Amino acid sequence: NMMDVLSSFGFGIQAYRHGNFDDAEKAFRESLRLNPTDFCSQMYIERCLHLKAEPPKDWDGVWKLTSK
After folding, report:
1. Residues with Cβ < 8 Å from 29, sequence gap 6 or more?
2. C-alpha distances in angstroms, 23 versus 36, 54, 56, 67?
């Protein structure tokens, strides 16, 4: 099971870095389905939702904090 989680998460990271937030979200949701306690997948799902709602102008694959 963990190999499936890692595979799905890895695909999600690649899609996320390339700005494919729909594909990334699907992959992270699959990782979370396979491992419901996976905090990282949940965090990336939330980031994908945010980035889809407010698309970045010049996405370079890096999440930037804008407030403390």
Report:
1. 41, 45
2. 19, 17, 17, 27
Q: How many CA atoms lie within 13 A of 12 on its CB side?
A: 24
- Mean pLDDT to the nearest integer, 46-64: 90
Tens of pLDDT along 2-52? 899 999 999 999 999 999 999 999 999 999 999 999 999 999 999 999 999
Q: What is the pTM of this model?
A: 0.90
Residue for token digits 């695909």? 11
Enumerate the H helices of 1-68 as residue ranges. Answer: 2-17, 21-34, 39-53
Structural contact between residues 15 and 23, judged by C-beta atoms closer than 8 angstroms: yes
Can you read off the two tokens belonging to residue 4?
């499936």
